[in-house]
Amino acid sequence: MASQGNEKARVYIINALKGLEVAPLGQDYRHVFNDKAGRDGANVIGYIPGTDFPQQYIVLSAHFDHIGKGARVIYNGADDNASGTAALLAIAEQVKQTPLRYSLILLFSDGEEVGLVGAHAFIRSYQALLADIKLNINLDMIAGDRGTKKLRFISKGVDSLLDKQGLKMWARLRDSARIQVKKGFKSGSSSIARGSSAVNNRIRWRAASDHYVFYKAKIPFIYFGVGTHKNYHTGNDDFNGINREFYLAATASICRQIYLLDRLMTN
Fold first, then answer.
1. Distance of CA 55 to CAs 25, 130, 134, Å?
2. Which InterPro entries does this UniProt record tie to the protein (predicted)?
């Protein structure tokens, strides 16, 4: 959170948003917060106004933090979650050129790895917007490893935004992607290295990333990811370990889905 590496990441994201001429949501791109444990952090938040419903929002989120350094290893986090962070910037570039009907909030969250604290801070700070947030789309680990073949997702509440025909159209679009887009995640465990040991816990996918905070706030969500893989939370999660062709196709598929959902959602 309040580390030199995190600040470098924030500066990179902010400069990228400025280069795309994406405005901040408020006066500043940095959304500074202090969590319950007294730790300082800062999200980065961008905003692209919608053409038809500028006062209603889709929140596209990805966390930019990672575990950092262990005793003898650096966790570079290429998939977890540079993949989601870079995808947000790519999608922002597209949406800036061709805006959505609904306004798009780009939430680059801090502190996901230590309890989703950046997403919690966003919800606390923007209570006045919550009733107007139609949907959260959260991207966390969408590049996988070299053997990854499927982009997975879970969702809750989307049926309140789309009618039956819209749900069918969304399913057909997923099925037409160059990669397999499958509902649901395989059961797995989270292994987080701490010193010379590891903490293993079964993964509850609904609560596995920032989308859970939106779910608790009764906001519909879609979470895209690939699930766990051999490089997850290890020192091998670097650029050379990801499935680059898959990642580009996954990002393109998610972008197409965002445009379709934006078009089909009922106001």
1. 12, 11, 10
2. M28_fam, Peptidase_M28
